[in-house]
């Protein structure tokens, strides 16, 4: 009898201890965003007995490098952070993502902005859930800009911006900080200039393979615009040996006037600065990316991301349940209120308090064309090529014509 009781207690203990662990992999985020995820996880686990949600964070480049191999292994996570676009489509086509369309209720789908959900939809099938959108802007140190005599309010065009860079150089102040080693921060210049020069229709035509595609005149002109900036030597010394993480910390330390980056730079620049506090909000502004003379793009066109989490093939059902909880209006509104990111769930922006994020949110709402980061939108191989092309122009290793042809060649054989 005692042995049977002991067996029963042993089995009961095993049942109690049995857990379902949902593993989530994403790039590194500031401490306050981690605290937000911890809180959401804690609340979710209270109502889902036996479920553990485990986040793992990797540095941005390490995440990208590890992901492809990991998705083919037995150690693959249940959810991965995604910038959507062509990379998501490639992953779906490769069978490494899970179609969750059938388990998505109409109410859940309708709670998300149509554009954001479309970014995670491939051929009518949903493979993930968006959580935030972002616009790339120039984060700007107003103290340094004033010392250089730059009228920030007057910067509307690319020529205006170049004039500001020249003033900074004349004042002996580093105009721009850049993490060139990671290449994708340089693609922000090249890509945004493509949006300004080619516009929505020009980009659509290039993607459709019409004419000379990405080697056509607007894309060559985008490279020439970028080179006009580079000819001024606008970046800090050794920018090609500087990572994104280092560059954002340097901006937080007041080492330069401008840093072209998305909304995530707000928290990252503070955390990566020497003090951990960065530039006070009252000494910082954001500037929309300038227009270009004669460009087909509209001033309201935006360049950035629609980001969220993709569901990996074979993921546990609880992973989708967690995504539903994470993306509900209350949790999204909490993130917006805490200034962590710009939420995409309908109505969740009502409690946003961060003035920079409110400006970006308004710009995204006003935009009739939002181009997802080109290194994501064009797929992993072509995306890597466009990052390389931007770095080659920055180092003088390729002319704008050569860079444009390289991108088109990669697109044509993808």
Automatic annotation (TrEMBL):
* Residues annotated as signal peptide: 1-18
Q: Which GO terms describe its cellular component?
A: periplasmic space
UniProt keyword list: Periplasm, Plasmid, Signal
Tell me where it mainly resides. periplasm
Q: What superkingdom heads the lineage? A: Bacteria
Question: Mind telling me which InterPro entries this protein's record contains?
Answer: Bact_solute-bd_prot1, SBP
* Residue ranges of the TM segments: none
**Pfam families referenced in this protein's UniProt entry, alphabetically:** SBP_bac_1
Its localization reads: Periplasm
Q: Which family does it belong to?
A: Belongs to the bacterial solute-binding protein 1 family.
Its protein name is Extracellular solute-binding protein
Q: What is the lineage of its organism?
A: Bacteria, Pseudomonadati, Pseudomonadota, Alphaproteobacteria, Hyphomicrobiales
